[in-house]
Fold:
Amino acid sequence: KLFAAVEFSVDATLRVARFVSRAIGGTVTSRRLLWLKQWQADMRHKRRLATAPFKGDKLFGEVLDMVLLDSKDKGKVLPSKSLPSPKMNLDQLPMSDAPIIGPLK
Structure:
């Protein structure tokens, strides 16, 4: 009986860990999409940025730096639909193979 209880507890803990990791991934993607909401670009490019692999301690990490353009007042801005980015084509961004939200296994 004790072995069965421990086995059940371990299995439940592993399932919870998988669920939490997927929830955190979905949260990061949702926060990225909210941040990109006002950007005047098509959804495909927004999704590419939102699903880029998470690295570092910032929401987008190095991936966003490749897309941002320098503005006149020494700031950085997102390129709009009307102005193509001379810095990088958005199709070249890395995209995660994992679905944004998928079924638990």
